[in-house]
C-alpha cells in the first residue's frame, strides 16, 4: 500500500493524500481517488506519459450517447484526452517503467484541488532529472484544465523535445462515441479538435495551447503540427536547457459542448478560450473558488483522529467534483465523473445517500438535483406505460431526461453456466420511485421551500403515488407487491420486500396528506394537478389501497421478514466471504440463482428501512433486526456500512458504529488497490457525511421536526459542522462533555436536543451544561 495520509503539516495537515511509490499495476486506484472535477467535467488522474494499465478518461456531465447495437445502452462518452504529454530527454523517452526512480511522490491537495507529482528520475542512459507536474480542473471556469511541468536537468545539459496535443481517439472500453470533426491550428498557437457524438448529436470542441518559460523568461520554441484521425498534436523543440536550469511548460486546455446552456457556436467557444489566462492566474481564481464555495460553506472539523478529518474532507471534495451544479438537466452518477463505471447513470444513490448532504448543507444544489427528477417525469411515465402501469415509474438507472430506463440487460459471467447474468434491476427494482418521493419530502421538511413544492414537489409526490396504486396487486383482502428486487440485490423476484412495501405505503400516505392540504390551502394548484394526474379517481384508490397494503410485521422474535420467503431459506457460514478482501467473493463459489435461495444479504435492506422510517419501529425491533440481519449481510455494496454505522450509533454501540465508519471511509481511501478502478463510490462518499452528521452528530428530521442526539465516538474529542434548517444556518459543536449550537440567522429555531425541546433565538448560541 503506497497511499499516505499524514504528509501534511501545519496548514496542510489532513489535507493531503500522497502516493509514495509508483505502482504501474495499481494505476486505476489512484486515477479515480485522485480524480479532478468541477461538476461540469471529471478528469481521471492519469499521468502525462502513457502506461499499459491506465484508463484515461474525461467525462462531461449530461453528454450521453448510445452506440448503435441492441446490446448497447446510453452512456457518458469518454471525451478527447488533453493531458497527454510525451517528453524526450536527451534521446530518452520519459517513462517511469524505464530507468530508475530515485524519488517519487504524487499528492492530491484537497484544499486547493490540485494534483502534483515530484520525481527524481535517472534515465536509461544515466542522466538525472527533477520533474514537477501540477494540474487542476478549474472550479472558477468550468471549461478549463490547466497543467504545468517544470524540468531541471541535474547531471548534464538537456536537449528536450515535447509532443503534446489533443487525442480524440478515446473510447469507452472499446466503444467509439464520436464522429470525425474539424482539426485546426490557430495562429500557430491554439490547437482545436471538434467532435460530434454518433447518436445524440452533441458537438464537442476542445482547445489546447502551450507556453514555455526558461528561468521565468517566456520564449517560443520551434514547433511542428501533426494531424491524424481525431487527433492533433504539436512537436516542440525548446532547444538546450543547461544543467540545473529549469524549463517550465504550461498547457491550458478547454472543453465546450452544445449541451452547455450558454453554448452559441464554435467561434464563441474559441473566443472564450482565447481570453484564458496563464496557469498561476487561473489557479489563484480556482483556489479562491474552492475556499469560498466549498471549505467556507462546509467547514466540518473533527478532533481526535487525523485520518477521520481527512476522510470527511475527501468526501466533500468528491461531492463537489461530481455534482453538476450548473445545470438541473443533469444528475449525479454512481461513480461521479471519475470513471466509466455504471456508464454515468444516476441511481437511488443520489436521493438516499448523496442528496441529504446538499439538503442540509447547500439547499440550492439539492433543489437542482430534485428538479432533474421533475424534468424526467416524461421518461418515467413512458416506463410506466411500457410496463402497463400508470403514473411515473422512475428508471432504476437514468441518463437523458426523456430516456426512461437505461439499465444494461446483461452483466458479469455466471460462474456455473458460463453465460452472462441477466440484470433484473431495470425491470423489477422499483423502490427508487418511492425513494425519490422520500427525498422530495425530506428536502421540503428541511427547507420549507414552498416554491419548489408548487413547481415540482407536489407533482412528484402525486405522480409516484399514482404509479404505486397501479402497481399494487389485490390478493384476497389485501394488496401486495410481488416479483421485485429490493435493496438486497441478491434476492430477485421476491414477493413483499419489506423496504419496497413500506416505502410504497409511505408514498401513498404522503400523497393523501398533501392532496388534503392543497384542497384546503391551494385549490387552484390542486385543480391543475388533478387534470394532469386524474387525482379525483386516484385519490380514492390511494386511500383504499394504502389501508390494505400488506406491511410485513415483526415476528415473535421481533424480526421483520425481508420478504415472504427470506426467513425460510438456507443459512450458510458467511465468515470467509465477510473477511474476503474482494467484493463479490461469494460468486467465485455460487451463482446468483443459488444465492437467491440462501439467507445472504448484499447490503442494507431491512436495515435501511429502519433508518429512513425510524420512528415507525421501536428500539427493541431495531436491535432484533440488527442481530438477525447484520451477520447475514456481506456489505458487498459500498453504501451498506454507512447505514449500519448510523444504526449502531442509534443502538448505543459506539465502538461498532465507529468500526463500521472506519470501513466505510476506507472503501476508496483504504489499502485495497483495486477497489476504485472503475471510479469512486458516490453513495459511500455521501454515506461518510451521513455517518458523521446524522450518526455521530445525531441530526435527524422526524415528522417535520429537527432532532439532535449526538453519539460522539470515544476517539473523538470534538465535532463541528453546519446545517441549514428552514433557511437558518446552525453551527453545531459537539464534545464529550457538551453540545453548542449557534443560530447565525435572524429567526428563532426550535429543535429537540437529547430529547428536550429548546428554542434558539436569532443570532444566539445555546450550550448544554
UniProtKB/TrEMBL annotation:
Keywords for the protein's UniProt record, in alphabetical order: Glycosyltransferase, Hydrolase, Transferase
Catalytic site: 489 (proton donor)
Domain Glycoside hydrolase family 65 central catalytic: 313-690
Any one Gene Ontology BP term: carbohydrate metabolic process
Pfam family for this entry, one: Glyco_hydro_65m
A Gene Ontology molecular function term of the record: glycosyltransferase activity
Residues annotated to bind substrate: 348-349, 602-603
Glycoside hydrolase family 65 C-terminal domain segment(s): 700-758
Location of the Glycoside hydrolase family 65 N-terminal domain: 18-259
SUPFAM superfamilies with a match to the protein in the record: Galactose mutarotase-like, Six-hairpin glycosidases
Gene3D superfamilies for this protein: 1.50.10.10, Glycoside hydrolase, family 65, N-terminal domain, Maltose phosphorylase, domain 3
Family: Belongs to the glycosyl hydrolase 65 family.
Record-given protein name: Glycoside hydrolase family 65 protein
Native source organism of the sequence: Listeria rustica
Amino acid at each position: 500500500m503506497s497511499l499516505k495520509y499524514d504528509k501534511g503539516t501545519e496548514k496542510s495537515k489532513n489535507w493531503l493524500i500522497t502516493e509514495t511509490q509508483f505502482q504501474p499495476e495499481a494505476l486505476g486506484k489512484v486515477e479515480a481517488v485522485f480524480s479532478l472535477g468541477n461538476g461540469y467535467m471529471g478528469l481521471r488522474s492519469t499521468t502525462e506519459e502513457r502506461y499499459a494499465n491506465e484508463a484515461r478518461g474525461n467525462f462531461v456531465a449530461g453528454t450521453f450517447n448510445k452506440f448503435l447495437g441492441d446490446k448497447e445502452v446510453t452512456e457518458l462518452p469518454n471525451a478527447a484526452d488533453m493531458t497527454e504529454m510525451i517528453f524526450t530527454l536527451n534521446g530518452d523517452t520519459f517513462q517511469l517503467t524505464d530507468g530508475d526512480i530515485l524519488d517519487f511522490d504524487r499528492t492530491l491537495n484537497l484544499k486547493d484541488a490540485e494534483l502534483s507529482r515530484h520525481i527524481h528520475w535517472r534515465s536509461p542512459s544515466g542522466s538525472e532529472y527533477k520533474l514537477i507536474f501540477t494540474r487542476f480542473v478549474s472550479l472558477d471556469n468550468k471549461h478549463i484544465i490547466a497543467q504545468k511541468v517544470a524540468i531541471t536537468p541535474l547531471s548534464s545539459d538537456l536537449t528536450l523535445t515535447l509532443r503534446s496535443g489533443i487525442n480524440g481517439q478515446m473510447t469507452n472500453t472499446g466503444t467509439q462515441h464520436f464522429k470525425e470533426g474539424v482539426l485546426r491550428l490557430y495562429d500557430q498557437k491554439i490547437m482545436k479538435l471538434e467532435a460530434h457524438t454518433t447518436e445524440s448529436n452533441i458537438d464537442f470542441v476542445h482547445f489546447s495551447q502551450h507556453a514555455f518559460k526558461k528561468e521565468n523568461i517566456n520564449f517560443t520554441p520551434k514547433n511542428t503540427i501533426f494531424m491524424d484521425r481525431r487527433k492533433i498534436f504539436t512537436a516542440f523543440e525548446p532547444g538546450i536547457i543547461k544543467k540545473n536550469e529549469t524549463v517550465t511548460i504550461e498547457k491550458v486546455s478547454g472543453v465546450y459542448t452544445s449541451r452547455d446552456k450558454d453554448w452559441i457556436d464554435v467561434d464563441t467557444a474559441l473566443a472564450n478560450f482565447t481570453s484564458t489566462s496563464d496557469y498561476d492566474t487561473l489557479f489563484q481564481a480556482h483556489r479562491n473558488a474552492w475556499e469560498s464555495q466549498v471549505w467556507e460553506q462546509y467547514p466540518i472539523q473533527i478532533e481526535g483522529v487525523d485520518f477521520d478529518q481527512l476522510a470527511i474532507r475527501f468526501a466533500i471534495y468528491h461531492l463537489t467534483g461530481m455534482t453538476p451544479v450548473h445545470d438541473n438537466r443533469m444528475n449525479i452518477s454512481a461513480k461521479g465523473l471519475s470513471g466509466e463505471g455504471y456508464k454515468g447513470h444516476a441511481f437511488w444513490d443520489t436521493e438516499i445517500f448523496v442528496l441529504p448532504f446538499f439538503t442540509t448543507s447547500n439547499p440550492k444544489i439539492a433543489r437542482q438535483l430534485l428538479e432533474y427528477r421533475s424534468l424526467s417525469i416524461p421518461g418515467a411515465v413512458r416506463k410506466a406505460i411500457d410496463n402497463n402501469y400508470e403514473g411515473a415509474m422512475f428508471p432504476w438507472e437514468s441518463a437523458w431526461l426523456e430516456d426512461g430506463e437505461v439499465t444494461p440487460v446483461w452483466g458479469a459471467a455466471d460462474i456455473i453456466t458460463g453465460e452472462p447474468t441477466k440484470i433484473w434491476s431495470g425491470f423489477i427494482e422499483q423502490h427508487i420511485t418511492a425513494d425519490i418521493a422520500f427525498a422530495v419530502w425530506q428536502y421540503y421538511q428541511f427547507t420549507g421551500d414552498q416554491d419548489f413544492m408548487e413547481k415540482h414537489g407536489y407533482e412528484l409526490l402525486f405522480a409516484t403515488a399514482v404509479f404505486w396504486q397501479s402497481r399494487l396487486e389485490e390478493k384476497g383482502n389485501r394488496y401486495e407487491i410481488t416479483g421485485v428486487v429490493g435493496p438486497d440485490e441478491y434476492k430477485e423476484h421476491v414477493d413483499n420486500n419489506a423496504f419496497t412495501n413500506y416505502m410504497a405505503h409511505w408514498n401513498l400516505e404522503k400523497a393523501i396528506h398533501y392532496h388534503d392540504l392543497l384542497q384546503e390551502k391551494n385549490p387552484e394548484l390542486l385543480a391543475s394537478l388533478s387534470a394532469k394526474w386524474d387525482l379525483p379517481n386516484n385519490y380514492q384508490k390511494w386511500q383504499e389501497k394504502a389501508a390494505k397494503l400488506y406491511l410485513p410485521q415483526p415476528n415473535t422474535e421481533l424480526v421483520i421478514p425481508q420478504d415472504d420467503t427470506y426467513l425460510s431459506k438456507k443459512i450458510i457460514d458467511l465468515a470467509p466471504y465477510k473477511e474476503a478482501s474482494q467484493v463479490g467473493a461469494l460468486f467465485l463459489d455460487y451463482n446468483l440463482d443459488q444465492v437467491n435461495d440462501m439467507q445472504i444479504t448484499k447490503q442494507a435492506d431491512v436495515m435501511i428501512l429502519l433508518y429512513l422510517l425510524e420512528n415507525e419501529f421501536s428500539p427493541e425491533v431495531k436491535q432484533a433486526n440488527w442481530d438477525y440481519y447484520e451477520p447475514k449481510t456481506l456489505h458487498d455494496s459500498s453504501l451498506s456500512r454507512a447505514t449500519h454505522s448510523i444504526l449502531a450509533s442509534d443502538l448505543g454501540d459506539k465502538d461498532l458504529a465507529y468500526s463500521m465508519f472506519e470501513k466505510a471511509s476506507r472503501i476508496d481511501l483504504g489499502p485495497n488497490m483495486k477497489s476504485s478502478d472503475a471510479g469512486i463510490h458516490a453513495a459511500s462518499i455521501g454515506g461518510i457525511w451521513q455517518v458523521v452528521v446524522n450518526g455521530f452528530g445525531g441530526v435527524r428530521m422526524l415528522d417535520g421536526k429537527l432532532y439532535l442526539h449526538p453519539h460522539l465516538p470515544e476517539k473523538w474529542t470534538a465535532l463541528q459542522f453546519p446545517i441549514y434548517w428552514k433557511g437558518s444556518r446552525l453551527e453545531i459543536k459537539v464534545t464529550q462533555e457538551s453540545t453548542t449550537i449557534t443560530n447565525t440567522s435572524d429567526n428563532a429555531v426550535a429543535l429537540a436536543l437529547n430529547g428536550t425541546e429548546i428554542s434558539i433565538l436569532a443570532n444566539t448560541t445555546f450550550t448544554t451544561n
